TrEMBL record:
Keyword annotations from UniProtKB, A to Z: Signal, Transferase
Statement: the UniProt record of this protein carries the keyword Thylakoid: no
Protein name as annotated: Prenyltransferase and squalene oxidase repeat protein
SUPFAM superfamilies noted in UniProt: Terpenoid cyclases/Protein prenyltransferases (SSF48239)
Signal peptide: 1-24
Example GO molecular function: transferase activity
Organism lineage: Bacteria, Pseudomonadati, Planctomycetota, Planctomycetia, Gemmatales
CDD domains tied to this protein: ISOPREN_C2_like (cd00688)
C-alpha cells in the first residue's frame, strides 16, 4: 500500500484550524428534523444507554492527532458522534469531533484526495468526503466547505467511462462497492449545496444498475462477476433511493433478496451500515422489523466496556470500525445526519 505523508501546510492546518461557529446546527437535545409520522421506531432507554457507553469508549480511542485510524475509520467514528447530536465544539463530545474534523482537513492533498499518513484509497476518500458533507450540512463551516468542494471535484473527474470508480483516484476500473461510497459522498455534498453535475450521478446509477441481477434481485460486485451478495444489495438500494428513484421495481426485489439471504457474514458491518439506511428510507413494517432485530442483536453483543468486536466479522478493521457502525445503526431514528433524513 502506498504511504502518503502530510505536507507542512497540512500540518499547520491541523494545529491551527478551529471550526467556525455552527450556523445551521440544532442543539444536541433536539433533532433538526422530526421523524416522519410513518416511522414509529424510537430509541428506547436501553438503546440510549448502550450508545452513550459506546461513545465514551470511542472518545478514549481517539489518537493525539485527532484520528481513530485511517480517514475511513475516522469518518465512521465522526458520523457516529454526529448521529447523536455532537458537532465540532458543540455537545459533550464537541472537542473530539472538532479534532477529528481537523484531522480530515489536514489529510487532504492539494488535488482534493483525502488520505493521510496511514495511506488509503478511494474507499477512504469517499467516506471522508461523506463525513465532511455531513459536517458542512450541519454547521455551514466555510473551511469544511472548501475542502469538501475539492474532495467532490476529485470524485467527479475520476469517474471512469463505465460510470464507476475503483481503488485509485483515476478513471480506470470500477466496482459497485467503491462506486457506492462515492455516490453517498456526492449526494451528501449536493444536499448541502455543493455543485455536483447531474450527469455524474446519473452515470453512476447506470453503472450500479448494470450490476443488478434480475434473476435473484441482488447486486453483483461488477456487472459480469459471480453472484450477488447481501451487503452489495443493501448498498445498491441506498443508491437508488439517494438518486430519487424510490419506486424502482429493483428496490422491492432487492429487499426481498436481502430478506431471503439474511446477513452477510463476510461483510457483516459494511452490509448493516447500508441496510439500516436503505430500510429506514423504505420505512413501515420492514424497517420496524429490521431495527428491532438489530437492536436486540447489538444490545446483546455489546462488550461491558462499551465497544463491539466480533473476531469472525471483518476483524481486520478493528473494534472502532465495528463500534461506530453499530452506533450508526442504532442511531438512525434520531435523524440527526442529513443523509439519513427523509
Amino acid at each position: 500500500m502506498r504511504r502518503l505523508y502530510l505536507l507542512p501546510a497540512a500540518v499547520a492546518l491541523l494545529l491551527t484550524y478551529t471550526p467556525t461557529a455552527p450556523v445551521a446546527a440544532q442543539p444536541p437535545a433536539e433533532a433538526p428534523r422530526a421523524a416522519p409520522v410513518k416511522d414509529r421506531v424510537k430509541m428506547d432507554d436501553a438503546t440510549k444507554k448502550a450508545v452513550a457507553k459506546s461513545l465514551r469508549w470511542l472518545k478514549d480511542q481517539q489518537a493525539a492527532d485527532g484520528s481513530w485510524g485511517n480517514t475511513a475509520i475516522t469518518s465512521f467514528a465522526l458520523l457516529s458522534f454526529m448521529a447523536n447530536g455532537h458537532l465540532p465544539n458543540q455537545g459533550e463530545y464537541g472537542p473530539e469531533v472538532a479534532r477529528g474534523v481537523r484531522y480530515l482537513l489536514a489529510c487532504t492533498r492539494d488535488d482534493g484526495y483525502v488520505v493521510g499518513p496511514r495511506g488509503g484509497n478511494m474507499y477512504c476518500h469517499g467516506m471522508a468526503a461523506l463525513a465532511l458533507s455531513q459536517v458542512y450540512g450541519m454547521t455551514g463551516d466555510e473551511d469544511v466547505r472548501k475542502t469538501l468542494k475539492k474532495a467532490i471535484d476529485l470524485i467527479v473527474r475520476t469517474q471512469n467511462h463505465e460510470g464507476g470508480w475503483r481503488y485509485d483516484p483515476a478513471p480506470t476500473g470500477a466496482d459497485i462497492s467503491v462506486t457506492i461510497m462515492q455516490v453517498m459522498a456526492l449526494r451528501g455534498a449536493k444536499d448541502g449545496g455543493i455543485h455536483v453535475p447531474d450527469r455524474t450521478i446519473a452515470e453512476a446509477v447506470r453503472y450500479i444498475n448494470r450490476c443488478y441481477d434480475r434473476r435473484t434481485g441482488g447486486y453483483r460486485y461488477q456487472p459480469f462477476s459471480s453472484g450477488p451478495g447481501y451487503a452489495r444489495t443493501a448498498a445498491g438500494v441506498c443508491v437508488l433511493q439517494l438518486s430519487g428513484d424510490f419506486d424502482a421495481d429493483e428496490i422491492k426485489k432487492a429487499v426481498e433478496y436481502m430478506e431471503r439471504t439474511g446477513e452477510d457474514r463476510q461483510h457483516y458491518w459494511y452490509g448493516e451500515y447500508y441496510a439500516a439506511h436503505a430500510l429506514n428510507q423504505i420505512g413501515g413494517e420492514q424497517w420496524e422489523a429490521y431495527y428491532n432485530r438489530m437492536r436486540t442483536q447489538l444490545l446483546g453483543s455489546q462488550r461491558p466496556s462499551g465497544e463491539w468486536y466480533d473476531s469472525r466479522r471483518e476483524a481486520a478493521y478493528g473494534p472502532v470500525y465495528q463500534t461506530a457502525i453499530a452506533v450508526l445503526v442504532l442511531s438512525v431514528p434520531t435523524h440527526y445526519l442529513p443523509i439519513y433524513q427523509k
